[in-house]
Amino acid sequence: MKLSNTKKTTITKALVITTITALSAITIGCSTGMHKNKTMTAKNDGDIMVPANYRSWPKFVGTVDKMKTGQVREIYINKTGMKTKKGNAFPAGTVSIMEIYDAQKSPTGELLKDSKGKLIKGKLSKVFVMEKGAGWGSKQAKGTINNGDWLYGAYLADAKTPATKDFTSCRSCHAPLADKDYIFRYDEHFDTAMH
Hints:
The protein has four helices and five strands; from the N terminus they run H-E-E-H-E-E-E-H-H. The protein has helices spanning about 5-30, 80, 170-175, 185-190, and strands spanning about 65, 70-75, 95-105, 120-130, 150-155. Strands 1-2-3-4-5 form a five-stranded antiparallel beta sheet. The chain starts with a helix and ends with a helix. About 20% of the residues are buried.
């Protein structure tokens, strides 16, 4: 059966309109959040991934020296978390990253400091991530130490290789900070120019 040019044009137009409509629906779905990444569907500690662009985020507080452990820590927070006002809990969608660096040491093992008395950052050792999701706390297994709706991830320096599968120590450290939404340096964050 041979189609006339008019029928071919009509069929072509219908196909173009159908294709444009389908692509528009996909684009709208993605832009409105219908497509969710792995972290927003996380259910357990260890499901949280390290976002690739976190170093472009604001610092949560200034560099933290840990003299006893010989570590230098850099802590970042995403824009969702930065919108929080003092006295409020961080909203769902807040992500915080903590990089742990080994402090540089002298040949005799003493920690090296700069002219201001701050530890000198050495090699990146681990990357920790905390993310808050609505209702995540209620989905934790019975016996999990309560940390509100926060979940944890811990990775080696590549930010991909898991450093642990047991997050009991993370949860134990943060548990006493319930009145600060389980966040270390909460007051420092709001009381300094970092915010």
